[in-house]
Amino acid sequence: MRESGQGRGPRVFTRAATGLVREAGLFDALIYNVNFISIGLMVALMFLYMPSYGGVNLPLSLVFCALLALPTAATYGMLAAIMPRSGGDYVYVSRVLGPAWGMMSNWNTTVWWILYGGVPSAFLASFGIAPFMRILAAFTGNESLLRFADWAASATGMFVIGALLIVVLVGLFILGLGVYFRVQNVLFAFAMLATVLVIVVALLRSPAVLQSSLAQQLAALTGRGDILEALIRESGYQPQPFNLRNTLITMTWIYLTMGFSFSSAYIGGEVKQASKIQIWVIPGTVVYALVWGLLLVWSVSRAFGEDLIGAISTLGDAGASAVGLAAAPRFHELVALGSGNLLLAFLIGFGFIFWSYAWLPGQILNASRNLVAYAIDGLMPSALAAVSPRFHTPIVSLVIMGALSIVSLAIYVFTPYFATLVGIFGFLLTFIMVSLSAVLLPYRRPELFASSPVAWRLGRLPVVSVVGALSIVACLIMQWAYLNDPYSGISLDPSTLREGILGFGMFLLNVGIFLSGLVIYGIARWWRGRQGIDLSLAYREIPVE
Length: 545
Description:
One of its GO terms (molecular function) is transmembrane transporter activity. This protein starts with 25 loop residues before the first helix and ends in a 15-residue tail after the last helix. The radius of gyration is 24 Å and the shape is globular. It has 22 helices and two strands. By secondary structure, the protein is an all-alpha fold.
């Protein structure tokens, strides 16, 4: 936004500084990114859904997915080092391809982060609190705990618990990133402790002992002494030979979390020494998640076997009532119950609570920074960029994101209109735009590339361009997977319109949301033009700090 500059010539932004403060250090940023992947939740989704497809090799699918996620992570890492500002892809795409493309790319992520606000907030109850309460109920015989677990897993329970979580998170964010990161890091320690305990228990106790203890504890919950046999029998699960197509398609469940390792790029203006650490922290997050994910998948698969894990996946939450369970037991629940030790079970169940919702903070925080970036460039009302002088946080944007996340939570738990995977195809459209920006940056902004800390070349080719091209290929492969996964909720088949919004209708919605940013930019440019303001001037420079 152009304003007169009190003796210093014209100014192109709404103010000379964002008011945000660089509070995130190396480990803060790494943990922030790892939390967005949510290692425990990633593996829980793998065990709960992927075996039911048939012939899926879980470790191989995880490795394939990591290989596809790495180029995009490296692309974001390089761009975050070149342009260390809050707003992520909005900054990168708008400064390389142009403002209209930047708004289209980033508005897409903002809308999907709003819509996805309901998913992890609901997961807190269904993947975190409900399993924890079932674990305690099995060991103590306390029926009140079991009833609370059943309520937590209900639509009402998920909404109430999720809404409280959103309110608490927004409150923490308002108090400042320093406060949030201190809380985040402590809770991350509990989550990692639980992860280590799962691996240790699953490896050190024999499969026979683990399954015997598990059967005993599940019998206490259901009253069925043959509970493990009943799970396998009722599911009708039959092991199938290796299926490469299903192994590739089911990457959709892994990419749901692993594909978002670059959360710190969206708070780039609040990361210390961002130009130095982002290039390593963001792709390093994928490697960290891959290593721990493989350890969890290997140890738990060894402990409980293909038949039981496949049966639980095939029954799912909807079929669990056939054996007297309110929901399918999560993988960490199996280990906790199989440990036969209340203290170990408590630490595992409690720690995994903090994996269950861990990508939600990034969604709210990152989207609020996107709103700030729009306002600073003059695309949206300046109130969205208002930063508290006391806390150095954009209170208005945070409250808006919190309120919209609660609305999304209600849609997710009370209606059939939003499936867990439906929006990742849309996110991938943005990832492709970011990758294209990386390919073209050395040619469209050569001075920016030459002065950057990643002005590397392979012969005559800029490394950032090569990595960006690899990322485009990886994103296209993942789009193929989502369009071919029968459970993704999105399809290119127009006949699915007869069945409701999921399917081809959701494909149209993904494309429509992506294009809507162009409309918003056009309206903003027209409105500012009537005020005598040339919006394009702001995009010739990197945004203010």
